[in-house]
TrEMBL record:
A matching Pfam family: GntR
Region feature Disordered, mapped onto this chain: 1-20
Organism: Corynebacterium argentoratense DSM 44202
One MF term in the entry's GO annotations: DNA binding
Protein name: HTH gntR-type domain-containing protein
């Protein structure tokens, strides 16, 4: 049977998505539910139930499932059905290789973006961090995870390349599954909590890049390199934290300090 995360009452209808086709609407709706933590790694998505919940035909849903499998969010087990993917240490390490490649390049794009684009990125990051702190205070760790993801999406969006932003959104949904795999259906505080302060510091580091860009080319380049170093270290520590949890260790909640 389909097993949603605890505390969830209903799924999003595919009509809430914005893509033109019914298939893409279903893909968007299911992806959003995965990204929000509605499902857990290993949950089965039963075709009949999902067709009703997302208000699509079963043929449409099957095609949506195939796309989500290509995006490495779902896995099909012969004679059993479709399940949410679980991430092991190797898959998580591969995920962070991609994230380092894309997000460090996004730092460079940010450094040379217009001041308006830079400010929009920083404002989005700060708003997401503020929302994460509020969710943390309420003990809503699923919301914390969602807001944490928004910080990194904002950075990549500054490049202004729609295909890159689309791919990064898929990667961040995969990241959510990796984090949920690390949480073992339990301590979301250990997987999401340590990142809020780090995300806020990332916004501060990018603000320094923006300010330096108004000073001189040399100052901008120095600030850009400092931002890359910070983010590289952040992602390295994040990877180690998640893999440690997946392998049964304990995370260091102050890992960014």
């Amino acid at each position: 049977m389909t097993t949603p995360a605890s505390g969830s009452s209903s799924r999003r209808s595919s009509s809430a998505g914005t893509p033109d086709s019914a298939v893409n609407q279903a893909v968007a709706a299911i992806s959003e539910d995965i990204a929000s933590g509605f499902y857990q790694p290993g949950d089965q998505l039963v075709e009949q139930e999902c067709a009703q919940d997302y208000q699509v035909s079963r043929n449409t849903l099957r095609e949506a499932f195939r796309i989500l499998q290509r995006q490495q969010l779902l896995v099909h087990q012969p004679h059993k059905g479709v399940f949410l993917r679980s991430f092991d240490s190797e898959a998580t390490a591969e995920l962070y290789v991609y994230r380092r490649f894309v997000q460090l390049a996004a730092i460079d794009a940010f450094a040379y973006a217009s001041e308006d684009k830079q400010q929009q990125c920083i404002d989005t990051m700060i708003a997401a961090c503020d929302a994460a702190y509020n969710a943390q205070a309420e003990g809503d760790w699923r919301a914390v995870g969602t807001r944490n993801s928004e910080v990194h999406l904002a950075l990549v969006d500054v490049a202004g390349i729609p295909k890159l932003s689309e791919d990064m959104r898929i990667i961040m949904v995969q990241s959510r599954l990796a984090f949920l795999s690390a949480a073992h259906r339990g301590d979301l505080a250990a997987t999401h909590g340590p990142f809020i302060d780090g995300n806020r510091e990332l916004a501060n580091v990018l603000t320094a890049v923006q300010q330096a860009a108004n000073t001189s080319e040399e100052a901008r380049d120095a600030a850009r390199r400092q931002a890359r170093a910070f983010l590289h270290d952040y992602l390295d520590r994040a990877e180690r934290t998640v893999i440690d949890l997946i392998e049964g260790g304990s995370s260091a909640l102050g890992f960014l300090r």
